[in-house]
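Collaboration report, partner site 2.

Our partner group contributed sequences for two proteins of shared interest, and the home lab folded both. The records are reproduced in the order in which they were received, starting with the first partner submission.
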Amino acid sequence: MIDTVKVKFTGRLLAQLPPRRQVKFPNGVRFWHDGEGNCKADVELPKLLWGHNGRLLADQADLDRSIALFRESLASVVEFESWQWVLVDLCWQFRARAADVIRAHQWSTFAGIRNLPSLICGGKEISWWGAKSRRALKMYDKNLRARGEADGVLRVELRLAGPKLREKIDVSVGLNFGELYQIFRTEVVKLAPVTLPEPRKHSFADLAAGLPLEIRSQFLLGYRQGKTSRAVRGFERKIGSACLRRIGWNWSEKLPVGHPPELINVESKRRQTQGHFPCPLAVFRTILLIDPITLNSTNRLCLQGQTTMPPLAPTSRFRPI
């Protein structure tokens, strides 16, 4: 249910870490500080439990366990008491032919976001982005290897950050799984609703929705000739609604009111070891001396100790104590 989270807090560093540079821990936690006690950190919570985010946090117990590991990792390098949530990504996965659902939404609007969505690679991903990325909705194919609905997985992610997050939850207290699911459902069902066609006749939009994708594209090119942009957008939205009716997709039904829908997990392509990936205190007891030029382009810091990282290459310029 919850994927990426980001927090901010003040604390006292317990380890020698470079200021104003992002440091990535072996378990995926990313940490930053300004040298004056102001800190930020973010992580994909499922990765702390299973090593990848294809498996979803299914209940409050999973959420609490992942947050505890997050706190444990940060406590290894900084002493702090409390934090505030800055960003939360909510997500769920559905069994479907992802490309069909994505293409059907390509002309849909999302309440509160002025622009139409961005369609990527013709049907692999679609996204709506609000101002300064404080509110966003994204759908993409989580299992690109699938060839049919039986194996296809559509992932839907909702991002809330900054003021948009503070409007929904108290950012100073713990996360509540049930409350976050209701927020996710309320936002996703704001997608332009599907309206039923008039029973007296079929519209051109219904006919266009039944055409193969290539022929439908040619049909739209012909329709645009001599039409205003407003008329074209309205017709495209009607085609999108007709496509959703054809595949029987309705967000109000896909997301039940009282509880999350069926849990769909996607295992990582790289077979991960079972169990979580903690970041023990011993990891930071033998931190290497860092020279600024040794930090690579992604500002990742390699640490020596009990980690899951591979050994340093012979050409590394890290100098042990």
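Second partner submission, folded after the first:
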Amino acid sequence: MPHLVATVQTANLKFGALKRDATARDSVRRALQSSSTVFEAAEQLELLSDLDDQGRDDAAVLLKAIPAGLQAALLSALDNAAGRSVPVQFAWKPGYDFELQIWEATEGDVGGMTMMLVSPWPRHLRERT
């Protein structure tokens, strides 16, 4: 879905700068540590601000539907990466259930962490409730 791809692109810009920009890194860490959900963190980091109303609604439906355990893992891994100045790359793909895949390939100053979120389309999430 184009709106979710746009959100992923915005997140990639923000989290890709963790290595180069101490101010961005500190801002990301504050947002992550003060958020109890992925949606709260996305709001604080203004990841949805460039979307139109429909896109923002779709992204909100999806982010709020992520199961609690996956939300905790995602927020924790992001905070850990930010604390170590490891850049993060995000990807999303549609699927039946929620999945979160995280891998890291770093050696010294090279590499980063990748997070792949698999989820149902927002319209399918709306149909489930």
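Feedback sent to the partner group on the second submission included the following. The longest helix spans residues 68-83. The chain has a mean pLDDT of 89.
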